[in-house]
Amino acid sequence: MPMVEFAGPSVRDDRNRIGHSGRLINCYREPVMTGGRTRAVLQAVPGMRLHETLPSVFMRAMRTIDGALYVACGGYLYQITTGAAVNLGAITDSEETTIAGHDGYVTVVAGGAYYVWDGASLTSPAVGAITDHGSVDHVSSYTIISERNGKRFEWSALADATSLPGLNFASATERDDDLLRVVAINGAVWLFGTASTEIWYETGLSGADAFAQMAGAAKDTGLKAFGLVCTFNGGAFFVGDDDLVRVTSGADFEVVSMPGVVSAIKDSSPSKCIYYEDRGHKFCAIVFDDRPAWVFDLATREWHERSENVMHEPWGVTASAKLGADWFVGRNNGDISKLAEIYTDEATPLVREAVSATLYADGDRTTLAELEFFAPVGRQDAGREPVLEFFISSDGGETWGKGRTIGFGAIGAYGKRLIWRALGRHRQITAKVRISDPVDALLYSDARVRLA
Question: Which residues pair with 366 in a beta bridge?
Fold first, then answer.
């Protein structure tokens, strides 16, 4: 009766469902040291605890600057510290919105317009070389602004985001495409175009000579859409114009996507890339309008999926930022939620599911005599015993039989076994487990199987 790997990372490709059935939804694999009872445990993704609801809809961007959270939502810029959100003033409401800041300034580019919050007022400074602004970020004490539907980018006067000298600009000229986003990564300026990417560096000179292109750092890979890039400490994660997902490594790109992710990008509607952290893991998520998010773990290099409610609808977040020790996400309904070790999304259950690879029996019917899972037992949820639900499919996970349940045990019932017997005869077997109760129930990624 061997222990076998029940749950690997999410790999199912909707274009090739029979190729592999494995999925992890709202949980990810956390490796266990060699010599443990399992190779990994299935850790729940962080749930969402409502922090504040803004009086606007359409959350466009979030960024933490000088200990405060700045949010662009519904045509306004808000500041959030420890109290209620403060409305700093009106901005253009646009999906093409970015926020940056340095030296006491908060800068916003939204819908072609440039805004600066100086701590007292929100203004639109006089334009410099560029009149139609695309995006904003900062390097050292310079504000960097890309041109919307153009090839140029400009930079502010040193340490003064309100001053845009007319000669402080350059053009991305290596390839014949327009710029989509300017992103600061490791102190360099990355210019993401529709079909290429260039890297520029700070020269140490002043004025119009402050930046120069890095030799050999032009790539024939662009950005698929404005919102499909996010940064983390030391790099960036983005969806390329070829539908492949990459992370930056120095000046190089590393492809990290696999077929299931690429199929989702091609066939569904990716809208945003966001970044957050949990329990030492660094996660980069591709959020879709019409399916669960695909989430890449930079620590384990594995993928899982993130959804909402019992029907696994799309994860409805549009922005993320860290404030203090906590990570926050924003939603288009104006909600700002803290990611926390809870097992609900605001008021709805955080339903965790793991689907196994499909076991084939050389075309012969095989009896599944026993299947045992391992998890902490002796749990209790608001006075009732939480349960583990179990399902079997004989067609590779396309349809599922009637679910069975088993309790995790009441408080103190630590010797209880999570075991099912007499599970029928099958030519192929795919198993799925589900936890809907708001409890910390770590499942092993390995299970004990006995065939007869």
Answer: 426
CB 28 within 8 A of CB 7: no
pLDDT tens-digit profile of 131-154? 999 999 999 999 999 999 999 999
Q: What is the pLDDT of residues 176-213, one digit of tens each?
A: 899 999 999 999 999 999 999 999 999 999 999 999 99
Taking phi over 0 as left and psi of -120 to 50 as alpha, with beta for the rest, 188 belongs to beta
Q: Is the pLDDT of residue 294 over 60?
A: yes
Query: What is the reported pLDDT for 380?
Result: 67
| CB proximity list for 309: less than 8 A, separation 6 or greater | 345, 348, 349, 351
The 10 Å Cβ neighbour count of residue 201 is: 17
Residues forming beta bridges with residue 44, ordered by sequence position: 27
Least confidently predicted of 51-55, 64-68, 105-109, 426-430: 426-430
Pairing of strands 235-239, 229-232: antiparallel
Helix (H, G, I), strand (E, B) or coil at 262: helix
CATH architecture of 3-45+353-451: Sandwich (2.60)
Q: Structural domain boundaries of the chain?
A: 3-45+353-451, 48-342
DSSP element (H, E) containing 322: strand 317-323
pLDDT of amino acid 250:
82
DSSP output for 205-244: --GGGSEEEEEEEEES--BSSTT-EEEETTEEEEEBTTS-
How confident is the model over 295-314, as pLDDT tens digits? 999 999 999 999 999 999 99
Report phi then psi at 265, rounded to 5: -65, -40
Comparing CA positions, the residue from 423, 291, 366 lying closest to residue 14 is 291
- Contact (Cβ atoms closer than 8 angstroms) between residue 241 and residue 195: yes
Least-confidence region, from 120-124, 297-301, 355-359: 355-359
Q: Which fold has domain 48-342?
A: Methylamine Dehydrogenase; Chain H (2.130.10)
Q: Mean pLDDT over residues 71-88, rounded?
A: 94
**H or E element, residue 51:** strand 47-53
Distance CA 146, CA 181 (A): 7
Q: What is the 3-state secondary structure (H, E, C) of 83-149?
A: CCCEEEEECCCCCCEEEEEECCEEEEEECCEEEEECCCCEECCCCCCCCCEEEEEEECCEEEEEECC
Sign of CA dihedral 20, 276, 107, 165: negative
- Name the residue with tokens 């032009």: 218
